[in-house]
Write a structure and sequence with these properties.
Pfam families: Arm-DNA-bind_3. With 483 residues, the protein is of the alpha+beta class. The protein is built from 20 helices and nine strands. The protein folds into three domains: 4-103, 2-Layer Sandwich (Double Stranded RNA Binding Domain); 108-215, Orthogonal Bundle (DNA polymerase, domain 1), CATH 1.10.150; 226-433, hpI Integrase, Chain A (Orthogonal Bundle), CATH 1.10.443. It starts with a strand and ends with a helix.
């Protein structure tokens, strides 16, 4: 399109914008203070000021950065900005980045606030996301996002590791990466082009600076080997009976007991730590066989929950709640903290460390590892994937059945959950704890039942079902002999 030379004036520009049906036009300002300013007008009268030029010292193509919208910007201001743009290009800088870095008021903290304002986050999620901002240094989070360089990212990433941990540092930088991606989509210039055109967090990938698995914690890859189950169950039992070394040697440690019960419930249910730790006693049935959430509680406490839910528990999970109930702690939460004023932390680091120390398997155990372990065990014993998701409150976009909401289906889920619990007890050398209808079962009988259950043609869901079937057969045989 040919350029039309013209000595711009403010009134002339506004008149040109009002013309309809004149087609696309391209004008070049010939005023002595034009500074290379040009005007593009569309057939519908939408205009844009811009300049042309190359960045000094680069071999790139001609740039045409936008200066502003003539319907919103005075000609005098446009000429001044055009002059700044040319000066920046002479200095070897991209004016689209350099100018807006000076004039865009967008600190990392303000972008973070925009980020959370655009999302409907639950209180727990909001607390987690805000935690990323708190982990940053005060200087870093107040920096303009366009002035942050790659070496700034590397330095902050390493300093967060020193103040916290490598995993926290990775999570914070993943959040910063998300902020830059959002800024590129939201902060636009007059031509609706992104002002934020680079993401310095990419340096952690290109230079392989992430501390763990490209910035992801790798929790999905962590599970519990069955050979370590005896050590873990033993460590949990030791924590329940733990007594202080220097103080309170004649008294069990309340917090250690609660944490041990928390870990045990997670092991035998596969629930998310955040879902389990906030359970209140009014949600637990009198016999501790079920935990219920009202629609409001489910929406508030369960991640990605539909309005629901009454969750059936296997015997081991039930026993955990019965143990806690017998302690009669003066707290509404099932898993109270030391002061009984709130619930335990979802990932209690001190107690994770104690469990790891007592288990002594060479692997670190956190509250989150039990979820993956439970799902792995459930898959191994033949529980189908849809049922596993229901048992552990996994996110589901489609439900084939509203599982767990009517009594027969809850009992079916309880049997599947018990199958997983039986597997854990078997490999944890706890077969002596297996009980049917409050009657102690010889461990050899359970092993026979487990062997039968492992066969593909087994019509039973759990070892308990097989033992019950054998009991009925034996009773029928005895009655036949006595008749």
């Amino acid at each position: 399109m040919p350029k039309i030379a013209c000595n711009f004036s403010e009134s002339w520009v506004q008149e040109e914008l009002k013309k309809e049906g004149a087609g696309s036009r391209l004008f070049k300002d010939t005023h002595k203070k034009a500074n290379g300013l040009m005007l593009r007008v569309s057939p519908k009268g939408k205009g844009a000021y811009f300049i042309e030029g190359r960045i000094k010292g680069s071999n790139g193509s001609v740039l045409r950065p936008s200066v502003g919208d003539p319907s919103k910007m005075h000609l005098y201001e446009a000429r001044n900005i055009a002059s700044e743009f040319h000066n920046l290009m002479e200095l070897g800088k991209d004016p689209r980045v350099a100018y807006y870095s000076q004039n865009l008021s967008a600190s990392l903290e303000s972008v973070h606030n925009d980020y959370i304002s655009q999302r409907d986050l639950k209180d727990s999620s909001l607390k987690s996301v805000n935690g990323f901002l708190k982990a940053m240094s005060p200087k870093f989070k107040t920096r303009n996002i366009l002035s942050i360089r790659q070496d700034d990212i590397i330095k902050e990433h390493e300093s967060i590791k020193v103040r916290h941990t490598g995993k926290v540092a990775d999570k914070v930088m993943r959040h910063v990466d998300a902020l830059y991606r959002m800024a590129a989509a939201v902060y636009l210039d007059e031509d609706e082009m992104p002002i934020v055109q680079r993401n310095p967090v990419d340096v952690l990938r290109t230079q392989k600076k992430w501390f763990f698995n490209n910035g992801y914690t790798g929790r999905k890859a962590e599970t519990i080997d069955t050979v370590h189950l005896p050590s873990i169950l033993s460590a949990i039992a030791q924590m329940k009976a733990y007594r202080g070394v220097n103080k309170f040697v004649h008294k069990e440690n309340q917090s250690m007991f609660v944490a041990a019960c928390f870990f045990e419930l997670l092991l035998f249910t596969g629930w998310r730590p955040s879902d389990a730790v906030s359970i209140e006693w009014h949600q637990v049935s009198d016999d501790c066989k079920e935990v219920s959430w009202s629609d409001e509680e489910a929406a508030e406490k369960l991640k990605n929950a539909e309005g629901m839910y009454k969750a059936p528990l296997n015997r081991q999970a039930q026993n955990v709640l019965l143990e806690l109930k017998a302690r009669n702690f003066d707290c509404k939460y099932v898993f109270p903290n030391a002061s009984l004023s709130n619930h335990l932390k979802a990932n209690p680091t001190d107690y994770n460390n104690k469990l790891t120390e007592l288990a002594d398997t060479g692997q670190r155990y956190t509250a989150g590892i039990f979820r993956k372990a439970y799902q792995t065990f459930a898959e191994y014993v033949g529980v189908n994937s849809v049922t596993i998701k229901r048992l552990v409150f996994h996110t589901q976009k489609h439900y084939t059945v509203q599982g767990g909401y009517i009594f027969p289906e809850r009992e079916n889920l309880r049997k599947k959950s018990q199958r997983v619990a039986d597997f854990i007890l078997l490999h944890g050398d706890r077969t002596n704890e297996l009980m049917t209808r409050e009657v102690q079962i010889d461990s050899k009988l359970f092993l026979y039942a487990q062997e039968k259950l492992s066969k593909n043609d087994s019509q039973f869901d759990t070892a308990e079902d097989i033992l019950e079937h054998w009991c009925k057969q034996g009773r029928a045989f005895e009655e036949m002999k006595n008749s």
